[in-house]
């Protein structure tokens, strides 16, 4: 269960609870002293998950008769106070308060998962225990025979509480309350009203003539207590609701003349007292507390001005010494005090001022040391010796350089670099200190470094008890920006690599619980990775195509030579044309002169296109003239082609 299991004994003499370390701690209510502390075998992996008080009737032999009287020895019955434990292996064990040990264990297969709740109703069945487990089963156990009884398969969901109501009805709680027929294991009704797992379930039975029974329940996230009717003709909705300032952690109730006296302890350490008549219940709006009780620390003996509170740990209206009082147990798990508090009808908010718990323990210690005498010593002339200076008095003092001191602080920036200077040998101390105190500045200085080698050395030296806190910080970092996510992934990778064996030893369910947040964040971040990869590929193709088109358009604008002509030497032309000039009986000068007179338009062409001078001259030197325009057909036959 999420809250600490705590309960008063049936006679109200003892109050016990299971601490977060799995220890069973028993206090004596009358004196407020610690009675017993039972530590289960942690190396066997069978810690206690829940418990309930029960009184077992045992047969004891009577006193030995006096000599001379032949009387038979008779047996007398006596009640022995015991506690029934539900273990993480799904079994039930009986703890004897007289011997302080486990007296016996129940035989049977038990649950396949840890026991989450245990119930004992002496009025309905004084020889049967009921346990609910995380496997969705309710099992009956015989107290006298120490054996397993009937098994009720409720479902696959994890059960958080169980209760035996009147008329053979079993009430189970998870996110919903369900009523089952004990004989037939048949579902009778489903009570709907809670938003989370039910962690508190109490029954309230009226007189046998009226045959009415009620149940009160509180969930892990609701700041109220709901009241239900368990009668056959009852409704599936709550009859009434009682408002608190926070989530309820403990409930005690008593019925006096059709008036219900209810006291509930919230998570903030405030006790709420309600008194309502069963005939005037309404569900229109939640009822407010008639009285609230808080414990404040007296600041008269301290130098601080801030007022601290001592949280109320447990409260009871059944075991108060007087009718108009309630029994409050306040303090911490390490130290509790029990005190009956009177109820003032005119005062709604009660703030009770008490001395701090540490001062109370110190005063008791001082009162017992009356014979102790402390010598008067002058503080200025006193000389303090330790193993170092006691053996070597003339040793010189070793002064630590200021740079080394600043490096040990590991909170100042380096002058040569902008990164945070943190000695690797001190990183583990800073990390443990930050996880223990949850100091944001220290954690920021540790997680600000993204050096894989430094992270590996730090993770290798971290104690095993801080792995859960480190996982919580990693989950918080992964919810932030990308820079912090990168650092968290690096730390998480080294943590899984180095401490794989310790993480596997937690078991499948605990391992999934610790990594559920990290896995959820990782899956959420990589959910759209495929779509982003496709989008990146398409954008790359579009950008490459645009760049290629731009380059092609630039290349088209560059001027290129359409025709490249290479002129031959004059000697080669003269050698080719020499024979032709002799055959026609004309010289080059005559040809040029004739052309200039008859076709003057060639001059313009020669001036405009100097590259064609050689071609024109070749045609003229071959005897092509336009003198005889009338004999055009004859001139065509006189044209000659010159091949290079």
Automatic annotation (TrEMBL):
Keyword list, A-Z: Nucleus
Biased composition (Acidic residues): 590-611, 626-644
Listed name of the protein: Small-subunit processome Utp12 domain-containing protein
Gene3D superfamilies listed in its UniProt record: YVTN repeat-like/Quinoprotein amine dehydrogenase (2.130.10.10)
Cell compartments where the protein resides: Nucleus
Small-subunit processome Utp12 domain boundaries: 439-542
Gene Ontology cellular component annotations, sorted alphabetically: nucleolus
Native source species: Anopheles albimanus (New world malaria mosquito)
Pfam family, one: WD40
